[in-house]
Design goal:
single chain; alpha+beta; five-stranded mixed beta sheet; 5 helices; about 20% helix; YceD_bac
């Protein structure tokens, strides 16, 4: 989708729909796990330009994309769908943003034409999960499927831990302190 003229589209109360390549969103691209051969879709979006009751230029729309992120359990790519909807006021300066009511969100355009990639990148960055991971640990790569992390199968295995030495995380500290005994 090429840069759009919000003034012209708002005059006709027109909607624009199309795809935006993720490579036009460098900050979002930096968060993606593309090095392992994973691919990312293009961002599908719909934008409707209008003027509100106060004559402010607005854009309302939605966007969807599936992006590869790094699973925080196995460090391998996991496909995560992102879906956002937005309702923004288009302004020309920081002073215009400050003049808006607190409940309104804005985007500052630097030129007459508005690049959809800039608007969508901001919205999609906010929609990224804090910690991406596969839905089920069984879908993770070998790093996370270590027998210590993977729960036992339901095929007759009990959920109780196998008998053996109990791990005590502070045992080393106790040994350094002299076994916790005062001399």
């Amino acid at each position: 989708m090429d840069p759009l003229d919000p003034e012209r589209l708002a005059a006709g109360q027109t909607a624009a729909e199309g795809h935006v390549a993720l490579d036009r969103m460098p900050r979002l691209n930096a968060e993606l796990c593309l090095s392992a051969g994973a691919e990312a879709d293009e961002v599908w979006c719909r934008m409707r330009f209008d003027r509100d009751a106060h004559g402010r230029l607005t854009v309302r729309g939605e966007a969807r994309v599936t992006v590869p992120l790094e699973c925080q359990r196995c460090l391998e790519p996991v496909a995560k769908p992102l879906a956002v909807s937005y309702d923004l006021v288009i302004v020309d300066s920081e002073a215009d943003v400050d003049a808006l009511p607190a409940e309104m969100d804005a985007i500052i355009r630097e030129q007459r034409l508005l690049d959809p990639a800039l608007l969508l990148e901001e919205e999609l960055m906010v929609a990224l999960p804090i910690s991406a991971r596969h839905e089920r640990i069984e879908d993770c790569g070998p790093l996370a499927r270590d027998e210590m992390l993977l729960p036992p199968d339901s095929e007759g295995q009990s959920s109780e831990p196998a008998p053996g030495p109990t791990r005590r995380p502070f045992q080393v500290l106790a040994a350094l302190k002299g076994g916790g005994k005062k001399k």
